[in-house]
Amino acid sequence: MISRRKMLKMLASFPLFGGIAASKMGMAASSKEASSASAERDLFEELGIETLINGRGTLTFLSGSLMQPEVVQAIESTSHEFANLYEVQDKVGERIAEMLNCEAAMVTSGAAGALTLGTAAAITGTDEEMIKKLPNISGPRREVIIQKRHRYSYDHAVRNTGVKMVEVESAREMEEAINDRTVMSLFFNAAAQFGGFEHTIGHEEFVAISKKHDIPSFIDAAADVPPPDNLFKYIDIGFDLVTFSGGKAIRGPQSSGLLYGRKDLIEAAKLNHNPHSDSIGRGMKVNKEEIFGMMVALESYLERDHEQQWEEWVGRTKTIAAEAEKVPTVTSERKVNSGPANHFPDLQLSWDQSRVQIKPEDVVKKLQEGEPRIEVSSNDEGLYITVVMMKPDQVGIVGRRVREVLSQAV
């Protein structure tokens, strides 16, 4: 058998063909060797970054979620060839729109990127000059209507376009606030959940008022799956634009998001987005691999057996609870967040602190500092553990470590 080295030497004796063939074989070999070397590298260890077990859920600072294997495969498989990014975004958008039963869709740089692009679309439409000038467009400052209790940190992404947020507290105030400067209305879907109140203007009435005055309505539902029905619900209610995060429960690329709804607005959002160089969204680049990955993640999410997955999550809470309850006075309670955001089965652990003499926040600290590093949270009742982002083989580890930390305080 002729060795690779000997073959390259033989081919090199042919001036043209040898040079090309040898080069290709050399590049192929180098590529294979580089790929093998890359697979063997532990970049976390190399850079001194400690990995962790995520018992807090889809928080961005903890990397959000882990991509499904099919998403990773989609990213890898599309990384070896060039393609026209306009065409990729258009074709993938068409497929996503089919899946979500809406007019049009696009992949964005997270839900925050979608908020900026959707607002930009409502302001500029397809006007090229306005697109180039945003956020410093001429004339009176444009306005976005929002319920006062819906103000939140992420509306900064809306304010990036230069708009003024106009706060209202009732349907009557909303009607009175709309004028010729109003370009959009914004509804933060989880506001009542986080604030502990009822929306002062409900979904249907909010949409109806917006339609009456011919202004686009936009709902931010970034973390609002499961259930998967929510992906369709807000279009059915009548919102013109909807955004969900791609990197939370859908388990797409962490830096991806979905913007979908009215076709004219989505087309305008694309004009405000990368790869258009003179646009507000140029820095919100989404590469082709992430676009494909988001599409495959949505396919996978919609095809998933969500009842089975829920039961698996419940089983994880039982496993951890069974270990923790081996410590005297420890009790457990499964708590289901009512939603719409982060609607998961979580675990609450409590104990008699006169017998198990450690505060919940100190348990959190010991788990963070232990081996392996585990991130959970605490509240007034005790330890709070979100199980949905754990790997299956990590569940028992969490239960054991919690038991060990509590046992040491008895």
Automatic annotation (TrEMBL):
- Keyword Iron present in the record's keywords: the answer is no
UniProt keywords (A-Z) are: Pyridoxal phosphate, Signal, Transferase
Signal peptide annotation: 1-18
For this protein, the record's InterPro entries field holds: PyrdxlP-dep_Trfase, PyrdxlP-dep_Trfase_major, SelA-like
For the modification N6-(pyridoxal phosphate)lysine, which residues carry it?
248
Q: Name one Pfam family in it.
A: SelA
Gene3D superfamilies in the record: Type I PLP-dependent aspartate aminotransferase-like (Major domain)
Required cofactors, per record?
A: pyridoxal 5'-phosphate
GO terms, molecular function: L-seryl-tRNA(Sec) selenium transferase activity
Per the record, the similarity remark reads: Belongs to the SelA family.
Q: What is this protein called?
A: L-seryl-tRNA(Ser) seleniumtransferase
Write down the species: Fodinibius sediminis
Upper taxonomic classification of the species? Bacteria, Pseudomonadati, Balneolota, Balneolia, Balneolales
